[in-house]
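Good morning C.,

I know you're traveling, so I'll keep this short. The sequence:
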Amino acid sequence: QVHIVESGGGLVQPGGSLRLSCAASGRSFSAYAMGWYRPALGKQRELVAIITSSGTANYADSVKGRFTISRDSGKNTVYLQMNSLKPEDTAVYYCKAVDYNAFTYWGQGTQVTVSS
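The tokens, ready to paste straight into the viewer:
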């Protein structure tokens, strides 16, 4: 069984920063890719950012230049540094891990609220 644990959400003022962390664990588990998603209109969840084991990262256009995803592959841990936060970034952020057999695992989500 694979466990996904997220942390780092909270309340921040517009223009502020937050850092989310996500750790995946499980016997013999190794993540090919890990990323962050959030709910969006018309979609169950939209991609925010994702990074592969080789370090290739992709971002939603709405967060490019503001968010940075990084990964500690040895620990199956991913981080999302969020700067210049906007009220429209308010959402529950979900961590996703994909293993080398393409099985997908989701965390429970962490709330990010951007408000003055």
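Safe travels,
E.
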